[in-house]
Every structure is written in structure tokens, then in C-alpha cells.
Write a structure and sequence with these properties.
By secondary structure, this protein is α+β, with helices and mostly antiparallel strands. The chain has helices at about 40-50, 75-85, 105-115, 120-130, 170-180, and strands at about 10, 15, 25-30, 55-65, 145-150, 155-160.
Length: about 180
């Protein structure tokens, strides 16, 4: 088990948690936001969770207000939004910072373990620039809905750009590789 597993977290309901609570599972850690152009990804993330959870997979959502104030609500408001609008059943956690000097220790550990995305970020960087937004340089999280894949051993094995659709074959192949590697 890696040190990342022992970082203290809070569920969206305020209960203490750690990634170690999901030991032996493949995890997709995603920083999420309710008012982002990528927010519809909640639907695809929930579909991934439903498809693979019985094989030992979980999506873990971490709301963050780091990018253009796109997650302004309280934890209770975020939970209500996710359930009502997208039927989210995957585990959600309390709002945290994912970038900059106030970044949560989990995100500092994730970006240190995987400083670059597995796939290209050019399209996402171009989209942000067209909106007059300056994207963060690597290893910082680029934007909402960046995805970190953690293997059953607790190690970060891949990082996907924010605009990677949850149904993207590159992502699903990576998830399946981790899920079925020991079979």
C-alpha cells in the first residue's frame, strides 16, 4: 500500500475517510465542478462506476472551486446537485483545493506521482485560451475533471486531461488493464 492511501480525507457528508478505505480497488480520482462546461461528464463517470464497480472499481469525486469559481456551493449543495441532476452514486468527498499553495495533500501527492497527463492536453489548453483563461503548467492540475487512475496496489498509473470523456477508449482500456491485470 502506498503513502497516498493514508492521506486524511472527508466524505461529502463530513465523515473521515482515506483512500485506504478502498484498498485493493482500482480508483479513478476526479476533481469535479457543478458549473463547468465539462460538468456533463458526471453522467459518463457514473456510467463507468456502474459498469465496473462489481469488478473492484470506484470513481471518487473531489469538488474543487479552483477554476473560475465553477464550484461555489457547499458540500450539501454539491451533493444535492450531483444526485438530482446526474444520479451520482459514486463516492463524493468534501470540497478541497487541487492546485496552488493550498492544494490538498492528496492532490500534491497525485501530481507528484504523475506530473504529466497520459494523453495530450493541447486541445484543452487551446479551449481555455479561447475563453481568455490561462491554464496551469504541469504538474499542476489543468482544469476541472482531470482524472488520476490508481491501481489496486495504490500506485498512480495514469493521468488523463480534463476533456477526456469518461467513455474514451483510452480511459476504459486503462481501467480494464488495471482491473483485469491479475486475472
Amino acid at each position: 500500500m502506498s503513502a497516498i492511501q493514508d492521506i486524511e480525507l472527508k466524505t461529502i457528508a463530513g465523515a473521515p475517510a482515506r483512500l485506504a478505505d478502498y484498498a485493493g480497488q482500482v480508483l479513478l480520482v476526479v476533481n469535479v465542478a457543478s458549473k463547468c462546461g465539462l460538468t456533463p461528464q458526471y453522467e459518463g463517470l457514473e456510467a463507468l462506476y456502474e459498469t465496473y464497480r462489481d469488478q473492484g472499481f470506484a470513481v471518487l469525486g473531489f469538488p474543487a472551486n479552483d477554476f473560475a469559481g465553477q464550484e461555489p456551493g457547499s458540500d450539501a449543495e454539491i451533493a444535492e446537485f450531483c444526485t438530482t441532476n446526474f444520479g451520482v452514486a459514486f463516492p463524493m468527498f468534501g470540497k478541497i483545493a487541487v492546485t496552488g499553495p493550498d492544494a490538498h495533500p492528496l492532490y500534491r501527492a497525485l501530481t507528484a506521482a504523475m506530473p504529466e497527463t497520459t494523453n495530450d492536453t493541447t486541445t484543452m489548453r487551446d479551449r481555455l485560451a479561447k475563453h481568455g483563461l490561462s491554464p496551469n503548467p504541469a504538474p499542476e492540475v489543468l482544469w476541472n475533471f482531470e482524472k488520476f487512475l490508481i491501481g489496486r496496489d495504490g500506485e498512480v498509473v495514469a493521468r488523463f486531461a480534463p476533456d477526456t470523456d469518461p467513455r474514451d477508449p483510452a480511459l476504459t482500456v486503462a481501467i480494464e488493464r488495471e482491473l483485469f491485470a491479475s486475472e
